[in-house]
Amino acid sequence: MDINEIEHADVASHLVWGGDYHYYVHTPSLVARNTFLYPLQTGLFHYEEGLLAERTRFDSFLIMVLRNGSMLVRTKDREIVASGGDFVLLDCYEYHYYQALEPSDVLWMHFDGKAARPYYEAIREHRGVAFALRSPVYALNQLARIYEIFKNGERVCEPMLGKYITDVLCEILALENDADCGAANGDGAGADRDGVRRVMAYIPQHLDEPLSVGELAAIAYMGEYTFIRAFKAQTGYTPHAYVMQARFDAATYMLANAQTSLKEICEACGFSTTSVFCSSFKKRMGVSPLEYRKRARAVR
């Protein structure tokens, strides 16, 4: 079937089972739907070779861990083979297909929530559809814990379920979990990450200083061009934009929570003059610093 010919609003599914499987369905409360990440179904399946699932749409996100075996995974724009030990993350709001290429044991969970798509998009960009983690134990244990709660008939605590899902997704995103972690392989990627993190820790402690790109690059032990590129890749900010955001974050906190004068805030946060600070603050926040302080304190 040509997947480009599928009408993606159609929710038809093509499921071919025949292995051993155990699964549980959860109906989250309205509070959970509006607040947390939440599981919808979770299960532990044994797939015999050739068993498959093909859907045009099943409103949720799916995470799977192959304990062993291998599976062909297909989305609307790519096809990949996942092997034992791999994680697979799918956007089931779109076409998806997976088929066992050999006997395979799979722990899986459909989940959703208001934060689900941003997590999915970050993981998809960083890791792709199928990926291995350098240290998979914690993510696997948290995923297994969700399954065990339903399997054992334990009391359901929706905030904790949301925490477990968040733990899994954050663990997947952790740079230390890159299977080809640069520090481990001896290339420069691990050193670059350490350098950027060193700078991120340095900036909040030295906001009263100029914090030029050259100075920050030296702290990271990089040339300026390499540093700017590595910093943007890791944080999403240029070094200058990150410094300015840190200055404003500190200034807004001081305005709302301290009796500090504008002059003292400017000095502590690295603004050259109060006029520069007031002009930049109003442009960014839509109100003057004093009006912001007045509103923040009026809410208390």
UniProtKB/TrEMBL annotation:
SUPFAM superfamilies under this entry?
Homeodomain-like, Regulatory protein AraC
Q: Which GO terms describe its molecular function?
A: DNA-binding transcription factor activity; sequence-specific DNA binding
Tell me where in this chain the HTH araC/xylS-type domain is found: 197-295
The record's annotation in Pfam families points to: AraC_binding, HTH_18
List the keywords (alphabetical).
DNA-binding, Transcription, Transcription regulation
User: Which protein is depicted?
Assistant: Bacterial regulatory helix-turn-helix protein, AraC family
